[in-house]
Amino acid sequence: xxxxxxxxxxxxxxxxxxxxxxxxxxxxxxxxxxxxxxxxxxxxxxxxxxxxxxxxxxxxxxxxxxxxxxxxxxxxxxxxxxxxxxxxxxxxxxxxxxxxxxxxxxxxxxxxxxxxxxxxxxxxxxxxxxxxxxxxxxxxxxxxxxxxxxxxxxxxxxxxxxxxxxxxxxxxxxxxxxxxxxxxxxxxxxxxxxxxxxxxxxxxxxxxxxxxxxxxxxxxxxxxxxxxxxxxxxxxxxxxxxxxxxxxxxxxxxxxxxxxxxxxxxxxxxxxxxxxxxxxxxxxxxxxxxxxxxxxxxxxx
Length: 301
Hints:
Blueprint: E1 10-19, E2 22-32, E3 37-42, H1 48-55, E4 63-68, E5 71-72, E6 82-85, H2 97-105, H3 114-121, H4 136-148, E7 154-158, H5 166-181, E8 185-189, H6 193-199, E9 202-207, E10 210-216, H7 217-221, E11 227-232, H8 237-240, E12 246-252, E13 255-260, H9 263-273, E14 278-284, H10 287-295
Parallel strand pairs: 3-8, 3-9, 6-7, 7-8
Antiparallel strand pairs: 1-2, 1-4, 4-5, 9-10, 11-13, 11-14, 12-13
Helix pairs in contact: 3-4
């Protein structure tokens, strides 16, 4: 059995998974291609961890297929080109960062150099320190370095920037983009929707084990047509709320936020009705808006 060059780097096809009476995944399809970042989004219990566990060969599907490079994900050879950064991992506290890198690199035939790993993960200031002496954010950077040291063709990142400051997060994003430009495929799970928006080209949204949306990030954002109009006005919020196209009006500090679709007629009416209108801003729906709409339960809706 050998890897299939034309096959996706990672894919689930019609996967079902049960844990006792609980149906954790219901016919899930998911694909990660070379040079692509796919964000797998969903609330707690949506099935993200189960999907990742299947692709890593840690779980077996009850129906459907979980494959890496065209072969069964449980096959050890399929996992040789995989890098993994999970939310929780146990690493020896007494080993120094450089020692951890040296140790992990030995498992791979053509690993990155220690210097490359340090540079990509931003470890220049901590590579000589013991792992147990590092902060949570610093440990996450080390875990990223370990995940990429084998030059993976496909990289699984589960909440990769939890605990990182803004500068470290931006640097990690740049390293991920660099690897993707070289052909690496990335499956990203994150609760930071701005992170998914910054990195991903494709998005799959799970709700209760079912795919409720999948496609390009612009298409997912387009599922929510309304815009947010912010302004300062002498007009009463309750009056604006009755205008055609206005879905909701909220007071925010000294101004208003108006949810409207379409936004243009509402903006024109605001300008005509209030010559003193100021601080006007129109923002289209973002990924967070689409995610909330897609994952909202029937009861909440």
